[in-house]
Write a structure and sequence with these properties.
With 246 residues, the protein is an alpha/beta fold. Helix content is 34%, strand content 9%. It folds into two domains: 130 residues, Lysozyme-like, CATH 3.40.80.10; 50 residues, no CATH class. About 5% of the residues have low confidence.
């Protein structure tokens, strides 16, 4: 049986539409759905790390799955290394809150959130960090997340959040390609570079300058509790900025 040209064209259109998923209703206005196959799902470009401030994974799970609390993360890693998958990686979890990094003011929409079961006053368990490294490697490989985009909650919400704590092993993560790192004293500071400019160039929100300094030092100079930027701190930031651009 020979088909008319119009029938062939209609079949071609139906075949294309058949490749597109049905559109879930979002608006209450009258619309005519014409699904297009031309789209991608949300692709995370950051990983934001947290500590739970809890003493057990069970308590953290209770919080992260409580509809009333309205807080979540994509993953929770217990002290024993067990990984809990809580929110679809391609969905927007509620973990970063009001946040900023390098011009991005909605990290929830661009990131995967990982909670580490830790009360904030203790070293992170070895099994937990081993599991985290494996998970980060998997995420980086699948999504092509840039090395510099593995951050702490305190980095993207300075003055409001301090997690993960000063106990967190950022140098070890950087050795595996998750976050940039420079050893203090690696190079001298360049003249005429003030701390606020360098912090902003690296990515921090400097609207509260001293909160940004505190966040930077907690991540990169955890033994220094001051809120002042010394020459060696500016030199460290210059090194970090260069590493971020590599």
């Amino acid at each position: 049986m020979r088909l008319a040209r119009g029938s062939i064209a209609l079949l071609a259109v139906l075949a294309v539409v058949g490749c597109a998923p049905l559109l879930p209703p979002r608006t209450s206005l009258p619309v005519e759905a014409r699904p297009s196959p031309n789209f991608n799902e949300r692709r995370p470009n950051f990983v934001i790390l947290h500590h739970t401030s809890n003493d057990t994974a069970a308590r953290a799970l209770g919080t992260l799955t409580d509809a009333v609390r309205k807080v979540s993360a994509h993953y929770l890693i217990a002290r024993d290394g067990r990984i809990y998958y809580l929110v679809d990686e391609l969905a927007r979890a509620w973990h970063a809150g009001e946040s900023y990094w390098g011009g991005n003011s909605d990290l929830n929409s661009a990131s995967i959130g990982i909670e580490l079961d830790n009360n904030g006053d203790e070293p992170f368990a070895e099994d937990q960090i081993a599991a985290l490294l494996a998970l980060l490697a998997d995420l980086k490989q699948r999504y092509g997340i840039p090395t510099a985009n593995f951050l702490g909650h305190g980095d993207v919400a300075p003055g409001r959040k301090v997690d993960p704590s000063r106990w967190f092993p950022w140098p070890r993560l950087a050795e595996h390609g998750f976050g940039v790192w420079c050893a203090p004293g690696a190079s001298p500071a360049l003249p005429d570079q003030d701390g606020a400019t360098l912090l902003a160039a690296f990515g921090y929100d400097v609207s509260d300058y001293f909160a940004a300094v505190g966040a930077f030092k907690r991540h990169f100079v955890p033994d220094d509790l001051s809120r002042e930027m010394a020459e060696q701190d500016r030199a460290l930031l210059q090194c970090l900025i260069s590493r971020k651009q590599e």
